[in-house]
Amino acid sequence: MEQKTERIKELTMLLNQAAKAYYAEGREIMTNYEYDRLYDELEALEQETGIIMAKSPTQRVGYEVLSSLPKEAHVAPMLSLDKTKEPEVLKEFAGTHTCLLSWKLDGLTIVLTYENGSLAKAVTRGNGTVGEVVTNNARVFQNVPLQIGYKGSLVVRGEAVISYKDFEKINGQIAEEDSKYKNPRNLCSGSVRQLNNEITAKRNVYFQAYSLVSAENIDFENSHAKELEWLRSQGFSIVEYKLATAENMLETVQWFAEHISQNEFPSDGLVLLYEDIAYGQSLGRTAKFPRNSIAFKWADETQETTLLEIEWSPSRTGLINPVAIFEPVELEGTTVSRASVHNVSIVKELQLGVGDTVEVYKANMIIPQIAKNLTKSGRLHIPEVCPVCGGPAKVVRSNDVESLYCMNPACQVKHVKAFALLVSRDALNIEGLSEATLEKFIVAGFIKEFADIFHLDSHKDAIISMEGFGEKSYENLMKSIERARKTTLPRLIYGLGIAGVGLANAKLICREFDNDLERMCSAEKEEIAGIYGIGDVLAEAFTAYFADEKNRQMLERLLSELEIEKEAKAAGQQKLAGKTFVITGSLQHFTNRNALKELIEQQGGKVTGSVTGKTDYLINNDVTSNSSKNKKARELGIAIISEDDLLHFIEN
Questions:
Q1: Is the whole model's pTM more than 0.70, yes or no?
Q2: Which residue has the higher pLDDT, 23 or 615?
Q3: Domain CATH code at residue 527
Q4: Together in a domain, 621 and 556
Q5: Exposed (0-12), middle (13-18) or buried (19+): which is 374, by Cβ within 10 Å?
């Protein structure tokens, strides 16, 4: 008995840690499969012994509300559902009654209240007793009606969800691998609970109603289905459902199983609800569960396979992610051969080793995972060097989770932004090399330094086979790279990423040295600092860059791939030498601000973005406007001129 009591305590602690990491911190310290297994073990031990710890996850409803959003107590506790993985249990649950079978959406539960036809309040489920008020955020969901035809008091529950497509898109915009969201549910939770609803609006959050809590003076004829269809008529999106009886329960469950891969939104199972409202209410509730409904979680399809290797994939933050590569197997209708293992802690927990027999599955029938290791050899060697740069790699423990990091500050993957700057529009202007693509190429070993970009054609087959690439995109990339071989010296100097050297400063320096790169590279700090608009700090960074022999050698290899074109020199005297300009408002004589900026720089002037005491002229064709820049210029006594004024000055 004592041993079982200790196991209960241990399981309670482990599951609470996993729940906190997953729901509150967006981390995973164990697989979904392992969590469910431990939960079932705890529940069985509690039933056997009658011992339930104060913070048992089988008793708590939801996780503690931790944000600074306003809090509000629910009128009645929002209970979680009892669950099963057996379709036969759903058949028994239905008995002689008709039921609604619907998706169990994996997002964030929201309660909406309408008064007099207007959305009055939105509250999250929170911990089941107290939720967070997110009314302003709900107003910017993609499909929540702000006004409805019904003018009585209405309370409706539903799930806020983010589609797989938007999840991938938003994650793709996050540079750091360990800053990416683990799954759509985490992204949705963070999006709905923002203090600034402008962020929520950009996240494409959708609301799907699944339960009508109350509606004054409406007769729904004792039918949950008619409640949902009435909500649809009021403009709500409702959860997809089907009517089911014991006779057709198994085939209805099978229909959902066949369609989950086509689901736009994430689902972690199904919900079965008695269609007869009065009958369901008559059954009452337990301390935790209502008796009118039950949740069904997919019994994961698993396959045994052989672990071939662990691929250690570095990211720009230094985190090296373990990815399991195994003999291909069929799961849920698709071929699977790799799965993320997340971190070193899970690698150790699974006791992985090359050649082990592992059991794999798809979490929520979508995401490949390792369920368990049947042979547990534990022979896997954790790398001591980074697979990209060969620098030292070290296991770092944070929040009780061990992760592998590259400790070399010069690792190429950590400098993806440096490569991205070199290929950016104002530098070499190579289309098709986003930061995400560059990171893939660096991790694959295709790019180790700048010059390697011009030899990507030697990796044609590997690039074409990469996800998101094909023959056409490869050809377009190669054409863009060839066009980039012809460039100007200022573009190249800017693309090197020297601290503080923007394109305008690069042009100033190149003109001062008459585009003589060797003179520039050998210049003393005082020579660079003596150029108007440069200064000591930038001069120090510039000369320090070229004093580094590694930088010089890297530049020489890059230059061997390029053809530097001479910039046309402005005829006659540079009329704007030493003058600083700010451009604002619409233009009349130039196609865009860059064209006007180019003219000013050719005449020896400099263009900045904001009006300061160092500004000589503000160019604005609407000289009398009360724009913020015009006001600032007047306060500082800076002349406001038009395009015509500038052109007249240059031409005379």
A1: no
A2: 615
A3: 1.10.150.20
A4: no
A5: exposed
